């Protein structure tokens, strides 16, 4: 389900996904198929890991990468969930062929 709530989206970002919602910063983002595909990949990841485990893993991996890179943006971009989503966001058929726990390839 897609909803528009600009107040909770951090500066520099257009969307956030919290299963089962894709929360967008603005109405125009509803037409951005690449952005939506990226967020739908996150929906699948969250579904696989039962939401709470996804965010626990995401937070721990972010902290580890932050220590490694010493840069918040690089830490974020190198989280395995984000690497998978960014790598496949232009492939609009990716979710049809994605293997279970596909993000593990990006650890």
Entry keywords:
single chain, 107 residues, mainly alpha, three-stranded mixed sheet, 5 helices, 10% strand, globular
Question: How would you sum up this structure, described in words?
Answer:
- By secondary structure, this protein is mainly α.
- It has a domain at 33-106.
- 50% of the residues lie in helices and 10% in strands.
- A 3-stranded mixed beta sheet has the order 1-3-2, covered by helices on one side.
- Strand 2 and strand 3 (21-24) form a beta hairpin.
- It is globular.
Summarize the structure.
The protein is mainly alpha-helical. The chain has a domain at 33-106. It has helices at residues 33-48, 52-69, 72-77, 80-88, 94-97; strands spanning 2-4, 15-18, 21-24.
Determine the fraction of residues in helical runs and give it as a percent range. Answer: 40-55%
Kindly provide the radius of gyration, computed on alpha-carbon positions and rounded to a whole number of angstroms: 13 Å
Mean pLDDT: 97
| Structural class designation | mainly alpha
End-to-end Cα distance, whole Å, is 28 Å
Order of strands across the main sheet: 1-3-2
- What is the overall shape? globular
SSE order in H/E notation? EEEHHHHH
Largest sheet: 3 strands, mixed
Please count the helical segments.
Answer: 5
Instruction: Pick out the low-confidence regions.
Output: none
Got a strand count? 3
> How large a portion of the residues is in β-strands, by DSSP E?
5-15%
């Amino acid at each position: 389900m897609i909803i528009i709530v600009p107040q909770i989206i951090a500066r520099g970002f257009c969307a956030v996904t919290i299963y089962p919602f894709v929360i967008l910063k603005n109405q125009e983002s509803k037409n951005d198929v690449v952005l939506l595909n990226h967020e739908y990949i996150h929906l699948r990841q969250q579904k696989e890991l039962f939401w709470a485990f996804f965010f626990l893993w995401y937070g721990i991996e972010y902290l580890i990468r932050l220590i490694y890179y010493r840069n918040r943006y690089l830490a974020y971009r190198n989280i395995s969930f984000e690497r998978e989503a960014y790598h496949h966001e232009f492939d609009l058929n990716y979710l049809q062929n994605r293997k279970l726990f596909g993000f593990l390839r990006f650890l």
